[in-house]
Design goal:
mainly alpha
């Protein structure tokens, strides 16, 4: 019988918290979360489309540059 993924993930998180409280635990910061390349490229395409369909004299505010 397979354990549900949520249970295993919770068990992993609890173990990590418990082991991080040990005096000899290594201090390793979590890597910064990077924005997926696909999401960034899609947001740029959507912005360019919004600029193309905007009324004359109005340019949408850029969220990302």
């Amino acid at each position: 019988m397979e354990l549900p993924t949520a249970y295993l993930r919770g068990l992993h998180d609890v173990n990590r918290e418990v082991f991080s409280a040990r005096p000899d635990a290594p201090v390793v910061p979590e890597p910064p979360r990077r924005e997926p390349r696909l999401r960034r490229s899609l947001s740029r395409v959507i912005y360019k489309v919004s600029v193309a369909v905007a009324p004359a004299g109005y340019r949408p505010e850029a969220i990302t540059r």
